[in-house]
């Protein structure tokens, strides 16, 4: 075989090939190994050597170089254990694989070519020229620049090494599907088909207990090799028929103790399974086959069965006792990985439920809302800390909030939920966006304080947040940002671009870096479209962040005013989200509608003693034009009179009176330049102070205060 040195001394091929001399046995070992592998029993592919001395000789390295067409260009397979592998220059690497493994392995090879990321320690069978097979640990490495192609390193698997490599490969992911798939791929070294069926509670991440025998419900979590299967056969994602689940549960729980079983041939399989439907669901073909069923057991008192692993092989290759022991050992070693994946799945589900709960449901009659949340890949640390929310405020405005909490998992989710609810409460209490961010800043700092005991090993320092308040009467938006990317505004004429928001450190910044939060006010006439988002939508390591924001502006500007907003939001995300998503993606689109011009009226009055009378006269005339009911008109006049009287009594400067007609009632607002907060008190029978506010409280369905740059506004709602 060709082992000519590569022009690049640092290539993966030469690094692996140069190490072979330290492992290839000398003297008669080569001849013995060649004879054993070339002329030995053709079923050796399913049997791990039992001789410890042979184990030391089987730990042999080999290396193959492939071009971009997956053809062999060079190889070093001189070790005796690789005898019979026909890896000639120009031949396809697929020729070394069992036919059923070709699609899966080819897909892995091409992924490494495209992404440039190595795929290591895959348990794989290779086919010799005489039809026998060799189990190896295969790693796929991208070739070193300027070369192209792949380097495939092979380690012939001894029994102990096989078990160690399999356990290592199975424990690399916290995704329950990938964990089950890795286990099935490792089990394939002992048979022709391997499957992993998990209890439905394990699959969904629920708690597991020692269930009664008849209550287990199995779902197929993994199946190898990847091929077309007969009709009716259970494939990944499908539930096993109830009879099949009960039979497997009874088989592996004989005498109330989980244990492995072997059904040696097709006749015995049909006798045990009985039903033709169950046979079609569990037996992977028409040819004669035997099966070993090994329970995945979580040790405890009593032990809990997480599922069943099944290994099928030809009936003329029965399982030896040593092979069954190896299968049991591998499954026992990796059952805790399955349980860890179950716990992660449970955490992932809980966090995702919280994330979905925080998403906006609908807008109102003054604004249309659409949102998309797209978590990162499930095998990451779980759902991240992106959050987005929108909700109507009691005074008729709408709050739009988007944030990005540092980290993933339950710690980030807990902080995300706390910040989201705190922001909503403060905004509903009438605080301005900058004041809300000041409180959130203090909260993040408090959560990170080790002495307070609230951190619990998690830090949210550097989290970002952006708050926008839309006023449907003035058609203005007041916005404050804490380290967040600038929103994108599309005007009714189609012009789009990011808002000029002054950069600010994220939440919880060091005291020396803290600055006052700014409030940016900009016009958003009816038909405007505002996009708030997190960095996962626009960040790409290959392009500047400004270019990503510009692409977002172009995509949002293409949204037609008549387009369904939710569908448009999904289209924007599918267009911009990176193919290799590294972070959660969140987008909030808000289409401004506002109140109709005839539904709002505003007056400005001097703070004089005649202001209440003037306000009553103007409001009375307006309510007649609106054809308001007499009882509603009387209530509204009394309400406006009390609010204006209080403004004249306790404040200075001009008074603003605004009346808004909405679908569910009348909203009355009286603004003044005072900064005192009205408080409702019980008061005594002879106490004059506070009577006006008690009257307001009894006349309205709800009332409150919001703060402005020049003072405050008291609002109150009257049912129509």
Please provide a written account of the structure.
The radius of gyration is 35 Å and the shape is elongated. It has a five-stranded antiparallel beta sheet, sandwiched between helices. A hairpin with a 5-residue loop joins strand 12 (384-392) and strand 13. It contains 18 helices and 25 strands. By secondary structure, it is of the alpha+beta class. The longest helix is centred in the middle third of the chain and has 38 residues, at 321-358.
Give the gist of this structure.
This protein has 720 residues and is of the alpha+beta class. 33% of the residues lie in helices and 24% in strands. A hairpin with a 5-residue loop joins strand 3 and strand 4 (133-142).
Descriptive labels:
720 residues; alpha+beta; five-stranded antiparallel sheet; 18 helices; 25 strands
Q: What's the total number of strands?
A: 25
Number of helices: 18
Instruction: Output the strand order for the largest sheet.
Output: 2-1-5-4-3
Query: What separation lies between the terminal Cα atoms?
Result: 92 Å
The whole-number mean of residue pLDDT values reads 78
Beta fraction: 15-25%
Low-confidence spans: 1-9, 21-59, 378-382
Q: Give the oligomeric state of the chains in this entry, treating copies of one chain as homo and distinct chains as hetero.
A: single chain
The coarse silhouette is elongated
Secondary-structure blueprint:
Layout: H1 12-19, H2 28-39, H3 52-58, E1 61-66, E2 72-76, H4 102-115, E3 119-127, E4 133-142, E5 150-156, H5 159-170, H6 176-187, E6 193-199, H7 200-203, E7 218-224, H8 242-252, E8 261-263, H9 266-273, H10 276-282, E9 289-298, E10 304-314, H11 321-358, E11 367-374, E12 384-392, E13 398-408, H12 409-428, H13 433-447, E14 464-471, E15 476-482, E16 488-490, E17 496-498, E18 520-523, E19 529-533, H14 545-557, H15 565-576, E20 585-592, E21 600-605, H16 611-625, H17 630-650, E22 655-661, E23 665-672, H18 691-699, E24 702-707, E25 712-719
Antiparallel strand pairs: 1-2, 1-5, 3-4, 4-5, 6-7, 6-10, 8-9, 9-10, 11-20, 12-13, 13-14, 14-15, 15-18, 16-17, 16-19, 19-20, 21-22, 22-23, 23-25, 24-25
Helix pairs in contact: 5-6, 5-11, 6-11, 11-12, 12-13, 14-15, 16-17, 17-18
């Amino acid at each position: 075989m060709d082992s000519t040195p590569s022009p690049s001394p640092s290539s993966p091929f030469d690094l692996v090939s140069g190490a072979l001399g330290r492992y290839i046995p000398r003297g008669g070992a080569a001849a013995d190994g060649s004879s054993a592998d070339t002329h030995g029993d053709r079923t050796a592919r399913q049997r791990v050597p039992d001789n410890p001395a042979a184990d030391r000789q089987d730990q042999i390295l080999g290396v193959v170089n492939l071009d971009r067409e997956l053809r062999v260009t060079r190889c070093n397979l001189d070790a005796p254990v690789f005898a019979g592998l026909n890896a000639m220059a120009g031949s396809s690497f697929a020729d070394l694989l069992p036919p059923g493994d070709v699609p899966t392995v080819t897909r892995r090879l091409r992924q490494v070519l495209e992404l440039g990321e190595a795929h290591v320690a895959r348990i794989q069978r290779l086919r010799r020229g005489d039809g026998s097979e060799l189990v190896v640990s295969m790693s796929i490495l991208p070739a070193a620049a300027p070369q192209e192609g792949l380097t495939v390193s092979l380690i012939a698997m001894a029994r102990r090494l096989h078990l160690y490599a399999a356990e290592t490969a199975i424990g690399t992911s916290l995704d329950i599907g990938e964990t089950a798939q890795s286990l099935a791929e490792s089990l394939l070294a002992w048979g022709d088909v391997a499957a992993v069926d998990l209890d439905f509670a394990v699959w969904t991440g629920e708690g597991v207990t020692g269930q009664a025998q008849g209550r287990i419900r199995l779902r197929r979590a993994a199946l190898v090799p990847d091929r077309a299967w007969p009709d009716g056969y259970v494939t990944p994602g499908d539930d096993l028929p109830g009879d099949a689940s009960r039979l497997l549960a009874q088989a592996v729980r004989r005498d109330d103790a989980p244990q492995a079983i072997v059904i040696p041939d097709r006749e015995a399989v049909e006798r045990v399974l009985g039903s033709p439907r169950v046979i079609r669901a569990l037996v992977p073909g028409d040819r004669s086959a035997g099966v070993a069923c090994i329970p995945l057991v979580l040790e405890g008192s009593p032990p809990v069965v997480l599922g069943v692993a099944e290994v099928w092989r030809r009936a003329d290759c029965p399982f030896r006792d040593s092979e069954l022991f190896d299968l049991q050992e591998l499954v026992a070693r990796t059952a805790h990985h399955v349980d860890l994946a179950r716990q992660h799945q449970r955490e992932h589900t809980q966090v995702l439920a919280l994330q979905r709960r925080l998403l906006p449901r609908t807008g109102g009659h003054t604004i249309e809302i659409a949102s998309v949340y797209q978590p990162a890949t499930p095998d990451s640390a779980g759902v991240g800390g992106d959050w987005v929310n929108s909700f109507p405020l009691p005074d008729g405005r709408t709050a739009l909030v988007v944030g990005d909490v540092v980290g993933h998992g339950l710690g980030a989710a807990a902080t995300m939920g706390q910040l989201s609810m705190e922001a909503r409460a403060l905004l509903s209490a009438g605080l301005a966006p900058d004041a809300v961010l000041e409180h959130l800043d203090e909260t993040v700092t408090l959560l990170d304080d080790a002495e307070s005991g609230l951190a619990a090993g998690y830090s949210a320092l550097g989290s970002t947040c952006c708050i926008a308040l839309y006023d449907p009467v003035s058609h203005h938006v007041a916005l404050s940002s804490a380290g967040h990317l600038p929103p994108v505004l599309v005007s009714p004429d189609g012009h789009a671009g990011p808002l000029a928001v002054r950069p600010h450190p994220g939440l919880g910044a060091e005291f020396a870096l803290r600055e006052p939060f700014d409030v940016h006010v900009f016009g958003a006439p009816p038909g405007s479209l505002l996009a708030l988002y997190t960095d996962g939508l626009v960040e790409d390591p290959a392009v500047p962040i400004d270019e990503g924001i510009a692409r977002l502006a172009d995509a949002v500007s293409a949204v037609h005013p008549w387009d369904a907003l939710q569908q448009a939001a999904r289209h924007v995300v599918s267009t911009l989200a990176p193919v290799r998503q590294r972070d959660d993606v969140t987008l909030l689109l808000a289409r401004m509608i506002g109140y109709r011009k005839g539904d709002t009226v505003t007056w400005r009055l001097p703070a004089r003693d005649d202001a209440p009378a003037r306000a009553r006269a103007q409001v009375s005339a307006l309510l007649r034009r609106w054809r308001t009911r007499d009882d509603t008109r009387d209530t509204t006049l009394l309400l406006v009179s009390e609010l204006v009287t209080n403004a004249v009594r306790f404040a200075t400067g001009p008074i603003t009176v605004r009346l808004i007609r909405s679908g569910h009632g009348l909203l009355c607002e009286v603004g003044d330049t005072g900064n005192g907060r009205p408080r409702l008190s019980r008061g005594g029978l002879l106490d004059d102070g506070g009577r006006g506010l008690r009257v307001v409280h009894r006349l309205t369905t709800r009332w409150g205060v919001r703060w402005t740059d020049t003072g405050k506004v008291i609002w109150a709602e009257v049912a129509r």
